[in-house]
Specification:
Strand content: 15-25%
Number of strands: 7
Shape: globular
Order of helices and strands: EHEHEHEHEEEH
Distance between the termini: 41 Å
Helix content: 25-40%
Structural class: alpha/beta
Radius of gyration: 17 Å
């Protein structure tokens, strides 16, 4: 089976991808999200950016085990994960666990350093997503999708 680079994988197909990273890499994650969205991928990301926007958060004692489990559920839904960093290569313990889980369930793991995608896989992505008939029907009845 032929291997695909990260760029080939994301250009060739589409589906769901989960971003995994330290929450201090908010801007890099948003850039990765933007690029993957324009490549026709549904992007699932962190639901809380405590390290990036801690000053905007109300300080509550929280049990993050449910949030961590939810992120593992996102990985289960995905055709790939992308580990996001700022070029330093930093990967924290939570992200390392997410990488191990993705590998355990045979989900391809790619990397994004704020500028470039990296990694290879022999897993073939699903075909490009097309508009569903419900979306097309809505657009026809409402003069487009609002843009």
């Amino acid at each position: 089976m032929k291997t695909l680079s990260a760029d080939e994988f994301f250009d060739k197909g589409s589906g769901i991808v989960t971003l995994c990273c330290s929450t201090k890499f908010f801007f890099e994650a948003m850039e990765c999200n933007r690029r993957l969205t324009f490549k026709n991928w549904i992007v699932l990301a962190c639901g809380s950016w405590g390290h990036s926007f801690n000053k905007y958060s109300v300080n509550h004692e929280r049990d993050y085990s449910a949030v961590k489990e939810l992120h593992f559920q996102k990985i289960k839904l995905s055709q790939a994960i992308v580990v996001v960093s700022d070029g330093s290569g930093y990967v924290g313990s939570s992200t390392k666990a997410e990488i191990k889980f993705a590998e355990f369930i045979s989900v391809p793991v790619f990397y994004f350093d704020g500028e470039d995608f990296m990694g290879v896989t022999s897993y073939q992505p699903p075909q490009l997503l097309s508009k569903s008939s419900v979306i097309e029907s809505f657009a026809k009845q409402n003069g487009g999708l609002g843009f």
